[in-house]
Write a structure and sequence with these properties.
Length: 346
């Protein structure tokens, strides 16, 4: 029987809410909705949450099972108290102006967070804080390293490409990232459609993806600097699906509070085939952000634990390419999936 994968959550938002609900639901080896039952010899029921940190004063001090339903989150299942109290997190960035009225900030220092991680001894620390909190993300990663835990960076902060990654490897730990890619979200779907058109021999000429959502992360992305950064990441990874250049744009365009955790993605793709005959795709995709990301997150946690226990640190790039929009080494979505499956599920 595989040992538990002790896990710490940084940031108790909509993704963390769906993740905790998933851990609760799949604790008894239920499989409905799971993408991969077993990854690296571990089941979903092997994931054990031992710590959680946040800077929202309305969540700090509460049991994690109750804090996940504070704010703009979606309830899928009932979650019993977990005995995990949300502790105060680190804040080393300025809170964006449009978020200052959304949360009441309460932050702590590096040493307090390090003490918490050393006490709970997680195998894996999962960074789920908001975009543009790059300094805070880096400090959390340094904290995880000092606490002898691997680190999963779901944010766009460029950590997996930094010198921190080699420091983790030298300690026989993994730092994987950056910018989590959902199972069937806007970017994955867009990449898959471009790949399909290329495989069918039509020439992609132009493509765009416009996202509208209602989560706090979507609201955060309305900041022009953050929007430009995320648009650059999404556009770059989408363009990697074709062996030639084509015009494209992808990113969040609007926030609609009534959508809550939902996201609506609009796609338009123009291609040409025989005799330059056009083929135009115009599609709308509606998904729930938190749940859409969790199958990938479950896979990443189990893969990282497998690498640590079996001294397979060389598989770091395979994990990054599978689970993130901005990995150190980008590959096509079809190839990255096949590489991950061959490494961890066969």
């Amino acid at each position: 029987m595989a040992e538990k994968i002790t896990t710490a959550i940084i940031g108790v938002g909509n993704l963390a809410s769906a993740f905790v609900q998933g851990v609760s639901l799949y604790n008894n080896d239920k499989h409905d909705g799971l993408w991969h039952d077993v990854v690296g010899g571990y089941r979903a029921s092997d994931i054990d949450i031992v710590s959680a940190l946040d800077i929202d004063a309305n969540k700090v001090g509460m049991d994690l099972a109750r804090s996940i339903f504070k704010g703009r989150t979606r309830k899928y299942v009932n979650v019993s108290d977990l005995g995990v109290e949300v502790k105060t997190g680190i804040l080393e960035d300025d809170v964006p102006a449009h978020l200052r009225d959304v949360i009441k900030v309460k932050s702590d220092g590096y040493e307090s967070v390090l003490k918490e991680l050393k006490k709970t001894r997680p195998d894996v620390v999962v960074n789920l804080i908001s975009s543009a909190m790059d300094k805070s993300s880096k400090r959390y990663a340094q904290c995880a390293l000092e606490a002898n835990a691997s680190f999963i960076n779901a944010t766009p902060a460029q950590l997996a490409k930094s010198d921190l990654s080699s420091k983790f490897l030298n300690s026989k730990l993994l730092l994987v990232g950056d910018d989590l890619m959902s199972q069937f979200g806007g970017t994955a779907f867009h990449k898959g459609m471009i790949d399909f058109m290329v495989q069918r021999g039509v020439k992609v000429k132009k493509s765009y993806q416009l996202d509208v959502g209602g989560s706090v992360e979507t609201l955060n992305t309305l900041d022009e600097k953050i929007k430009a950064m995320k648009r650059s990441i999404k556009t770059s990874t989408i363009n990697s699906e074709a062996p030639y250049d084509f015009e494209s744009a992808a990113g969040t365009t609007e926030y609609a509070d009534f959508l809550s955790d939902s996201r609506v993605s609009y796609y338009w793709m123009y291609s040409e085939g025989f005799l330059n005959s056009p083929a135009v795709i115009d599609i709308t995709l509606r998904t729930n952000d938190g749940a859409n990301a969790c199958n990938v997150l479950f896979d990443l946690i189990r893969a990282v634990k497998y690498c640590k226990e079996n001294d397979k640190m060389s598989l770091s790039d395979t994990i990054c390419a599978y689970g993130f929009k901005s990995p150190p080494k980008t590959s096509k979505i079809r190839d990255s999936y096949a590489d991950f499956v061959n490494a961890f599920t066969n």
